[in-house]
């Protein structure tokens, strides 16, 4: 059996079809189809049920996906063990947020690709929280305050922000003076998150309320400019709005607690050296 066929099958399973997998791999759909057919012939089972809408894993495909993922992970670990200082190679799948991803993380990933030409870096940018194990990612770059989980995390940098509102909002509703005052205001949120503020060395946690939600901070900044409520946003998103006067910082006595930038990965040895190299490069980038 060909290891590339294993990798192609995992890509098709993750992408949900031959066409999106071919786009991710940067090859013709016919090549993906040929590799998949060869693997099914070698195994003597049908791994995917083709439909007009894509491809779905058969029962055998779901079982083989777990084995194939484990085999590829073990192969990567074996390479790292035998040649710990050798060239990085193979596929490296990373999940990163749309917010900050293309501007802050993509240059680091591009530099990593230039440094290790045998490494095939596949990055998916989305603000949803992906399941690293079930969706076949080696690691993820996440921004914010991490929730408890079984994932291993390494902090590589910090994100600083402000609580802001439009001048029209402040004129009509006033500005909060303490974190407790936030409960009397409309807050612009990504979900049901909590906001953390600093009172000297003490952290104050608030669970804000609001009618407008979006899973992207740029959209929340636009809502704040429109006067829909208070935004708890990073400096990189609001700097231009503050400079233009479209937004103003409020509640300055209690600044937002800086949030972290993290590289997270599942427990185990899957692509651990690649992740370590990426982590070191991100730390160097954000410390600079």
TrEMBL record:
Record PROSITE patterns: HTH_LYSR (PS50931)
Keyword Transcription regulation: yes
Coiled-coil blocks: none
GO biological process: DNA-templated transcription
HTH lysR-type domain location: 1-58
GO MF annotations in UniProt: DNA-binding transcription factor activity; sequence-specific DNA binding
Keywords: DNA-binding, Transcription, Transcription regulation
Stored Gene3D superfamilies: 3.40.190.290, Winged helix-like DNA-binding domain superfamily/Winged helix DNA-binding domain (1.10.10.10)
Family: Belongs to the LysR transcriptional regulatory family.
Protein name: LysR family transcriptional regulator
């Amino acid at each position: 059996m060909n290891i590339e066929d294993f990798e192609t099958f995992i890509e098709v399973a993750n992408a949900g079809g031959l066409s999106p997998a071919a786009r991710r791999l940067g090859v013709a759909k016919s090549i993906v189809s040929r590799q998949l057919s060869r693997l099914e012939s070698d195994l003597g089972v049908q791994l995917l049920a083709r439909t007009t809408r894509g491809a779905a894993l058969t029962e055998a495909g779901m079982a083989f996906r777990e084995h194939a993922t484990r085999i590829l992970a073990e192969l990567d670990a074996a390479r790292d063990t035998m040649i710990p200082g050798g060239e990085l190679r193979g596929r490296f799948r990373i999940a990163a947020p749309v917010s900050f991803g293309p501007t802050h993380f993509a240059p680091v990933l591009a530099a990593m690709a230039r440094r290790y030409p045998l490494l095939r870096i596949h990055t998916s940018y989305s603000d949803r929280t992906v399941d690293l194990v079930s969706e076949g990612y080696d690691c993820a770059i996440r921004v914010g305050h991490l929730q408890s989980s079984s994932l291993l995390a390494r902090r590589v940098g910090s994100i600083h922000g402000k609580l802001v509102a439009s001048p029209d909002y402040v004129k009509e509703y006033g500005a909060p003076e303490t974190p407790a005052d936030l409960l009397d205001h409309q807050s612009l949120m990504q979900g049901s998150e909590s906001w953390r503020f600093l009172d000297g060395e003490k952290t104050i946690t608030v669970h804000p309320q609001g009618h407008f939600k979006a899973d992207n901070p740029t959209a929340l900044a636009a809502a704040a400019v429109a006067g829909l409520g208070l935004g708890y946003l990073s400096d990189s998103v609001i700097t231009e709005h503050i400079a233009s006067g479209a937004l103003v910082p409020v509640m300055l006595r209690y600044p937002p607690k800086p949030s972290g930038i993290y590289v997270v990965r599942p427990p185990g040895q899957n692509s651990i050296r690649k992740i370590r190299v990426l982590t070191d490069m991100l730390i160097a980038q954000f410390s600079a």
